[in-house]
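[job 4471] stage=fold_predict status=RUNNING
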Amino acid sequence: MSERVGRLAEPARNAVVGMLVGAFMVMPGVSGATMAVVFGIYDRLIRDVSSPVRYLREDFWFIVTTAVVGAAGAFACVKGLDLLIGAFEVPLMFFFAAVISMQLPDVWRQADDGGDVTPSNVLALAAGSALMVAVLCIDVLSDGHGVPQNPSTLFLAGIVCGICLLSPGISGSTVLLALGLFPMVIGSLSGLDVPSVVPLLAGAAVGGLLFAKAVHHFIVCNRKSTYFAIIGLTAGSVFTVAVQAAMRVDDGGLAVQCVAASAAGVVLGWCMRRLNRRYVLPSGPDHAARASVQLLLDYQVADAVERRRVYQDDRNGRQVHRVA
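[job 4471] inference complete, writing structure tokens
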């Protein structure tokens, strides 16, 4: 009886977790991958993404449940954010800037391996910051219209978002917010105007695949420089979003709303930090992101070994058939 209840409870739990992960993936400054780690499905998701052909049949209902309900959770969050952006766009920008700023200590912990900071680390930090400052300059020179919203820009932003979606502690929507694309994407998805964001979705799919394939090189082989670049991007995003929002504050009442929104963002960011410290970022260099990367590599090695075994069995079978 208990086993039957357990079999029935697992899909329901996966549905609830998928909805939460989907909703958190949409919010700037909050990582859906972190929620996947918290609820214990991150490693399974990474395994299925890295080897979909092998695990599609084994994990079919888990994949379908998580994807469908996650999309529903993301859409519900999109509808809510669309309403909030229409009524409180500037305070919402301050709210997200505060949430994003609270990520910095955790990203620093992921970058810290106990060794000295090298010139290449500093260069990566400067490059990440410079990229976001360049975005701000483009926004100022274009009178607040942000970067050009063409298919190429959306595709490149989607690649970055796809990588971020699979990385605990990093928010893909933060990139969209800093680029000035977040309101447009939210409005298009809320109005089911999917064709206008097809390049973004295609880029996100490509970015996810790139993360699964290139994770060994960028996080295992060059982990410290990679996370220094992320620190630069995160700090630059906070500065960019805050300046963009401050330029649009034109009265005292709006300023009070922005202060309140910033305080609420600090509270949410602090709560997310507590979750990160408890579930994602144990002390020392052997953090969960590196562990999940190693698990991904283990799955890839196991998959290669299994393919080799099947090949050898098939080859031996043909040899036995010839002898007979």
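[job 4471] summary: Residues 2-323 form one domain.
[job 4471] exit 0
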